[in-house]
């Protein structure tokens, strides 16, 4: 199945025949045979070539090829390699070599150009081996023809050396005035040449990488083709399009997109899984059609209601994209088949994984930002798992906040309970304590307590870890080390015995003090009534002291916890990097101080006072809880949660926005600006194989459409398949779309036609179906500021 989109093909416009021996003694190696060369060209898949001998055209060879040419054979375009003579400042002459490639492939033009060259040198009496031309003579001889001027810019006889001690401006003007490329330039030297020739360019083009560099074989022996005369291995260069002069013109206008080494072409054409074709059959009001898709950029164009979005959604239906909306057209696509790059057959459906496809309907992007939910962006960026983790992390903080409220409520309960104790010391108790009666007083029972269970557990853990360590072969324990371990184990055993001994002593002390307390109480009970009254009075005093101590302790603890909520910052954010320039922020936004929610639980809440001061009022009057009447422990927690609902809901419904670094964030940007950043983000993400967007130019700024978006598409179309519906000529022309699908609606019957930019027959159709398309085509073709040069 032949490709009907701009595809890559090998080109070689610098091949010699033995006719070069006429003008350069012994220039050709071996014997030239046109059939052999053709076999080599076919074998190497060269689609466009030229026979460029030194200062002469091998007319007979051209004619023989044209007469035997069949459809599918490599296309031969007329060319010649000339020695260009340059006058130096000291009066001497230096030459460089350049190719002239003419816009013709006919026997008549071969005879015309060959006769012109021969007549020029014959009239001047110049011997074949002495043939040279000046730039002025090039203009005089070939001014009426359309041709490309491709000088050597590196290697043997190059244009830089030819003008090094002469007027380099002349070389620059010549290259700028003629549609040209440079040949035989090492990649490391290209920028130097580009900077030199850029000096005279119009500022609109000065910073564009539009100087074309390309290498041809310069083969001098067809039997070893494609090796050059030096015998080194030749790396082919490829052009994108069809083998024609117009394709050359497009390549020299836009070399960045249309000229690449074979190794680079291999890399960009072996893209990830993509759609290769859709076979439309049996769909009502749609003409049957087989549409082939480029692995790079495909654009669907056409007038209003022509069926652009219909085809877009039909493809979405076939790949089962989650957001496709083919049902709205009321058509049956059952007989429509689709083919993948990794399959030899058409299939009813071609499902992609969720993270492999970005599918955006018309207007989706702006609506997406207007709603403020960026989850789809996360999905399109292939960051779902990281997003879920960060969201869970923030959601867990809701639990932390609820725990803080529970701790606050529990501490208040203890404080409130302490407040309700009896703090009365009766007059009789004071009299009894001051009487001269005797009674037995309790022994101070203060004794340091130990958690023996923890200590036993510690020793048990050490024992188990030592045993595991000793049996681990990884550590290569030797006999001496094993002895140390055994001694340590003995130490642990001894410490375990010591712990048991201390526990027995502690238990004995406790038992002794309990018995003493019992004896003292029994003895006091045996005393006369006055003495017993004194003993009871001292007991009540002890209880009062403990109660007073507790209420101050609980009040202090409650105050400290109140301070925690006083300063509690529930706001937080987590960041997810979507690409090197865009970060998604998940945020719990602080709308009001948490203390205000706490204080609002009370009838007499006053935000000018602290939480502690406010809740002292509830301690004094348990009816101060708003909306709940009398205070209970459960009601306080309910009220705290109810008043804090705004905070708790934010942990569930997280605020999210894009952080653009120095360029602000999506919260304070227009939907249009955010849409631009969104497109940039999804094009840059790695997991995606296919990007489908219906009219990406909608709601985008002109600067972004005509510059940033174009650059993004030009870059990422070689990394993933792109399918766009568009009416914007910049996207199609400057984006250098590989495949253009024209949708047409003729009295309700929809049809699709495939076009390519480099085909002259299609260019008017493309222009007629794009807003301002002619202007864009003209601007793209005007590569150099010729008027400025001619007037200077």
From TrEMBL:
Coiled coil: none annotated. It comes from the Bacteria. InterPro entries: P-loop_NTPase, PHP_dom, Pol/His_phosphatase_N, Pol/histidinol_Pase-like. SUPFAM superfamilies: P-loop containing nucleoside triphosphate hydrolases, PHP domain-like. Residues 11-86 form the Polymerase/histidinol phosphatase N-terminal domain. One of its GO terms (molecular function) is catalytic activity. This is Polymerase/histidinol phosphatase N-terminal domain-containing protein. It comes from Flagellimonas maritima.
């Amino acid at each position: 199945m032949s490709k009907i989109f701009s595809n890559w093909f090998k080109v070689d416009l610098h091949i010699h025949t033995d006719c070069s021996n006429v003008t350069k003694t012994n220039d050709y190696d071996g014997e030239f045979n046109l059939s052999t060369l053709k076999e080599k060209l076919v074998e190497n898949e060269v689609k466009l070539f030229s026979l460029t001998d030194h200062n002469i055209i091998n007319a007979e060879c051209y004619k023989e090829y044209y007469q035997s040419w069949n459809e599918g054979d490599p296309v031969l375009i007329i060319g010649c390699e000339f020695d260009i003579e340059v006058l130096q400042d000291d009066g001497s002459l230096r030459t460089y070599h350049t190719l002239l490639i003419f816009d013709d492939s006919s026997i008549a033009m071969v005879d015309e150009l060959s006769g012109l060259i021969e007549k020029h040198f014959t009239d001047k009496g110049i011997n074949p081996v002495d043939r040279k031309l000046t730039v002025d003579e090039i203009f005089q001889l070939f001014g009426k023809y359309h041709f490309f001027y491709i000088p050597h810019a590196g290697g043997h006889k190059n244009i830089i050396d030819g003008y090094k001690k002469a007027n380099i401006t002349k070389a620059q003007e010549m290259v700028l005035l003629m549609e040209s490329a440079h040949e035989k330039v090492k990649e490391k030297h290209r920028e130097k040449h580009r900077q030199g020739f850029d000096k005279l360019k119009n500022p609109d083009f000065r910073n564009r990488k539009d100087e074309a560099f390309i290498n041809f074989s310069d083969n001098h022996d067809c039997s070893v083709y494609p090796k050059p005369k030096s015998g080194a291995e030749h790396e082919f260069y490829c052009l994108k399009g069809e083998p024609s002069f117009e394709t050359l013109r497009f390549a020299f206008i836009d070399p960045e997109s249309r000229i690449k080494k074979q190794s680079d072409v291999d890399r960009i054409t072996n893209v990830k899984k993509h759609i290769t074709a859709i076979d439309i059959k049996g769909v009502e009001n749609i003409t049957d059609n087989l549409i082939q898709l480029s692995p790079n950029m495909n654009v669907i164009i056409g007038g209003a209601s022509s069926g652009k979005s219909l085809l877009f959604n039909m493809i979405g239906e076939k790949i089962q994209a989650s957001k496709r909306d083919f049902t709205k057209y009321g058509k049956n696509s059952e007989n429509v088949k689709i083919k993948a790059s990794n399959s030899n057959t058409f299939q009813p459906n071609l499902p992609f994984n969720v993270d492999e496809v970005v599918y955006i309907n018309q207007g989706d992007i702006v609506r997406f930002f207007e709603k403020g939910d960026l989850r789809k962006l996360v999905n399109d960026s292939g960051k779902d798992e990281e997003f879920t983790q960060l969201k869970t992390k923030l959601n867990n903080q809701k639990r932390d906040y609820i725990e803080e409220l529970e701790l606050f409520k529990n501490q208040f309960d203890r404080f409130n309970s302490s407040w309700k104790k009896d703090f009365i010391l009766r007059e009789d108790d004071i009299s009894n304590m001051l009487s001269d009666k005797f009674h037995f007083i309790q022994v101070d029972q203060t004794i340091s307590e130990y958690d023996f269970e923890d200590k036993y557990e510690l020793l048990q853990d050490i024992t188990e870890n030592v045993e595991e360590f000793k049996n681990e072969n990884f550590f290569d324990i030797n006999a001496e080390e094993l002895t140390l371990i055994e001694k340590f184990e003995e130490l642990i055993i001894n410490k375990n015995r010591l712990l048991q001994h201390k526990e027995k002593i502690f238990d004995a002390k406790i038992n002794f003090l309990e018995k003493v307390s019992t004896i003292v109480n029994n003895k006091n009970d045996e005393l006369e009534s006055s003495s017993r009254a004194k003993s009871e009075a001292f007991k009540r005093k002890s209880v009062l002291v403990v109660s007073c101590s507790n209420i101050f302790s609980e009040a202090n603890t409650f105050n400290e916890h109140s301070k925690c909520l006083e300063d509690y910052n529930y706001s937080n954010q987590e960041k997810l990097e979507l690409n090197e320039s865009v970060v998604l922020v998940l945020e719990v936004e602080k709308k009001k101080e948490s203390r205000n929610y706490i204080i609002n639980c009370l009838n007499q809440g006053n935000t000018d006072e602290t939480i502690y001061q406010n809740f002292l009022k509830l301690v004094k009057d348990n009816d101060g809880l708003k909306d709940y009447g009398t205070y209970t422990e459960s009601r306080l927690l309910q009220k705290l949660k109810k008043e804090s609902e705004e905070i708790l809901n934010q942990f569930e419904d997280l605020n999210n926005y894009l952080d653009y670094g120095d360029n602000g964030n999506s919260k304070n940007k227009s939907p249009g600006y955010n849409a631009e950043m969104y497109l940039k983000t999804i094009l840059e993400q790695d997991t995606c194989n296919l990007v489908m967007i219906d009219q990406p130019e909608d709601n985008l700024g002109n600067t972004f459409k005509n510059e940033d978006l174009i650059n993004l598409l030009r870059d990422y179309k070689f990394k993933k398949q792109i399918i766009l519906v568009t009416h914007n000529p910049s996207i199609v022309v400057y984006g250098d779309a590989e495949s253009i699908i024209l949708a047409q609606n003729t009295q309700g019957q929809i049809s699709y036609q495939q076009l390519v930019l480099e085909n002259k027959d299609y260019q008017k159709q493309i222009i007629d179906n794009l807003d301002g398309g002619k202007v864009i085509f003209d601007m793209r073709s005007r590569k150099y500021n010729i008027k400025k040069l001619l007037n200077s």
